[in-house]
Amino acid sequence: MALLMGFCVPSTANAAQSPRLVVIVSVDQFRQDYLTRFRKNFAKTGLFRMVQKSGASYSECRHRHAFTNTGPGHAAMMTGCSPNANGIIGNSWFDRAADKKVYCVDDEEASLIGSKSNDGRSARLLLAETVGDRLKAVTAGKGKVFSVAFKDRASILMAGHKADAAFWMDDGNWVTSSAYLQELPHYLQTLNDEKKLDQFARQTWTLLLPGTKYMNTGPDQNDWEDPPEGLDTCFPHELGESKEKGPNDLINHVYYSPFGNDYTLLAAREMISIEHLGDDKVPDILCIGLSSNDAVGHAFGPDSYEVEDMVYRTDLRLGELCRFLDEEVGKRKWTLFFTSDHGVAPIPIVAEQQGKEVVCDPLPATKIQQELEEELRSHLHLEPSNTERLLQRAEDSQIYLNHHHPALAGDNLKTGRQIARDWIAKQPYVKLALSVEDLATSSEEPLHQALQKSFHADRSGDVLWVLDPYCLPREKRKGTSHGSPYDYDAHVPLLLIGAGIRSGSFERAVSPSCIASSVARLLHIAPPAGNVERPLEEALAK
User: CB atoms < 10 A from the CB of 438, how many?
Assistant: First the structure.
């Protein structure tokens, strides 16, 4: 048995169960209930029927953190731990010391490769290693790790620190970061140079199936969806042809359509072939983020024809990917995981039509800044002041007190937190508010535990809160969003198929962060150092 830096090449008896290539597909914004609502129309050649026949599925898969957004979701699935450990508490967060917001993949010391943009990107702010980082370490770099998505944060946070590269779209071009490479691979540079994105100019997105077959039956033309400029609320959707912002913005239209996923999967197939992923006995990892589902979901909502059509098209494209893997890597030599970083809430107007109580922006930051400041000063017996505020920032369901204010010195900081917590908790449509001290205590309450999973001592605020179900922290009533700990945002699919997978349907409560330890188990390596999740043992062949 050959050993390489702690990596054990499987024996012949084990080889059939150990994949040469592991593919993790994260569909940005995909609820678990899509698999049941739309099951009747799934094609025999799609991924979902394939999994039903010969793969494994977990029906009770939920993200454990409270603030279900793209950055935290992708970081959790590949590190095996929640934001409280990996540090990615949001897509962005307030940096108390710098007195400004930071983006989850910001890196001023890095530069973009393939773009003239000055926005540096890397996994610098991710405080835990990924399973890909672990593979690179134990194989002395011989195991390849790549990632690709339309969104930078999806690609980078799945790839991790030591990946060969993470790729994403910037102004219509594939790009990467100097943290990974100094030049773009020739196959992606060719796609850029030949302007392959232009193949979608003036393409028309039509319904895949006859309209009568769709489960979503609301009016296709309506006044509550929020498509980008140049696209209507109803089918067919004709894409633009220009890279200029406005009604003909091709790049944005591709992103808000199934063609965004098509282009991402084209790049992924090129990567598999030209980087020779899965070609030798040292296993490789490829992460694929399908970001267009999120854009469509935000604009049209989960009860739309557009989202349902995206589900059918995503299913078919992933079925095609599996057949490509059979041809390129070899049958029984690859394993694919399918999950999502979060779900989505219904569009407010649609939710009201369904009998739900919905409020948009029930606790705006301007209200908090003014009224909570007054509340704090009243309790601490301070005169009003426009220069020395007790409240440094209020946003993203968090309160940041001014730790440098003399009135909050010593034990008064704890008092200030309690005042802020109690004021937040009394506001309409607030389900739960917790201070730093509350978050340090144990609780069996699920929302309490979810907030604990989202709290990082060095990055989070002094008070965190959760709104009531179906209440969105946004002013717009058109379109929708996500970010809560409720089932419509947290409950996502988890499917497995390929080498080393035992078929079956399992009901154990799991999380997408179980993927990290499961990939490690399949590849016979240790899980990432910060991993806290059990592998998906029921689905892994002995």
Answer: 19
State the greatest distance between any 2 C-alpha atoms of the chain, in Å, as a whole number: 77
Return d(Cα 57, Cα 506) in angstroms, integer: 6
Q: Which amino acid is at 105?
A: V
Beta bridge partners of 508: none
Nearest to 307 by CA among 207, 158, 191, 397: 207
How many CA atoms lie within 13 Å of 371's alpha carbon, on the beta-carbon side? 11
pTM equals 0.96
By the 8 A CB rule, do 268 and 155 touch? no
The answer to whether 448 touches 409, Cβ cutoff 8 Å, is no
pLDDT in tens, 187-212: 999 999 999 999 999 999 999 999 99
Strand-pairing partners, residue 92, are 103
Domains annotated on the chain, with CATH: 3-344+488-539 (3.40.720.10), 365-427+430-467 (3.30.1360.150)
Does an H or E element contain 176, and which? strand 173-177
- State how far the alpha carbon of 447 is from the alpha carbons of 54, 63, 86, 433, 487, in Å: 36, 12, 20, 10, 12
Tell me the C-alpha distance between 266 and 271, whole Å: 9
